Amino acid sequence: MDGPNSGEPGRPDGAWGDEFAVIARLAVRFGAAGRPLDPGEVGIGDDAAVLRPPAEGPLLAATDLVVEGVHVDPRVSSPADVGFKALMVAASDLAAMGARADHALLSVAAPAGYPLDGLAAGVAEASAATGCTVVGGDLSASPVLVVSVTVLGSLPGGPTPPALTRSGARPGDHLFVTGALGASAAGLRLLRAAGEGDPVPSGPAAAHRRPVARLAEGTTARLAGASAAIDVSDGLVADVVRLAEASGVGLDLDEPPAADGATPAEARGGGEEYELVVATPDPQRLAGAFARAGLRPPLPIGRCTGRAGEYSLAGGALPAGGWRHAF
After folding, report:
1. Fold adopted by 19-154
2. pLDDT band at 85 (very low <50, low <70, confident <90, very high)
3. What is the DSSP letter of 57?
4. CATH: 3.30.450.40, 2.60.210.10, 3.90.650.10, 1.10.3720.10. Which one for 174-317?
5. Predicted structure pTM score
6. Which helix (H) or strand (E) is 110 found in, with range?
7. What does R_g of the chain's alpha carbons equal in angstroms?
8. Distance in Å from the first CA to the final CA of the chain
C-alpha cells in the first residue's frame, strides 16, 4: 500500500491533474458563480466550510445523488447536463419546502479520464441560476460516475409561515401542480429513439437534460398560505400519494396536464419532473400570488378528501405508478 487509501495511488497525469489541482480549478470556477460569501465565511479549499446561519428562522438541509446509468444516460446527456441536473435536483427539495438554496457541498466520484471540466461547467451554470454557492465537497476515483450534492437553505421572508412539509394538507384542500407533466420522460424517450443527427423537440429534451428547481414557486406558495408541497421526482402518482399518506388525507384527482409531446401515462408517472405539487385551502390567493410574482399559473389537479387511504383518478381507481429504487 503506497498511501492512506486502500487502492492504487492516483496518477497526476490526467487532463485535469491530481485532485488538488482539480480542487484549485473548481474553486476558481465556482467562486464566479452563485452568491459571494460574506466576510468571515470560508468556502472551497479548507477542511470545512464556515458559513453564517440564517439571521432568523431555521436552517434547511437536503441531499441528493445522481448516478450514471440510474438517473442519467450518458448517451443522451452531456457531462455539463449531469452537473446542472445534480445541483438542480438537490435544490428542488428545498423548493418543495418553500425555501431558498443558499450553499451547496458537491462530491464527485468519477472514472479516470471523465471530463470533469464539462461537469463543473454545468454545476456552475446551475449555481448561477439558483444563487446557490458551492462552498466545498469531495473528489474520488470510481468505476462509475456518482455526483452527490448537499444543499443548505433558508426561508425568504422569515420563519413565518414555516417551511412547507408533506404532512400539512387537510381535507378540502385544493391540489395544484406548477407546470404540465411528463416532459422529462417524453424527452428521454425521444432522445433514446432518435438516430444520430435526428432533431429532438427542444422542450422535452431540455426538460430531461436540464430540469429547473421551482424555487420561486415554492417560496411564493409558502408565503401565500399553502398547506403542503412535494416535488415531482419519482412521478406524480407516487409523490402525491406520499403527500397524502404523510397528511392522512385521501385524494380525488383529475387527469394531470400533459406537457407537449408527453403521453398521459408519462404525465402520471414519468418522474424526474421537479415541478411542485402544492396543497392549499385558498386557491384564489395562490393564483393571485403567482400572477403578482410573474410566474406561470398553477394548474389544478384535484382535491384532498377526508377518506384517508382512498385515492381516485378521474372517478376511477388511481393506478400505480412512479419510480422506486430496489435494493
Report:
1. 60s Ribosomal Protein L30; Chain: A; (3.30.1330)
2. very high
3. S
4. 3.90.650.10
5. 0.90
6. strand 100-110
7. 21
8. 32
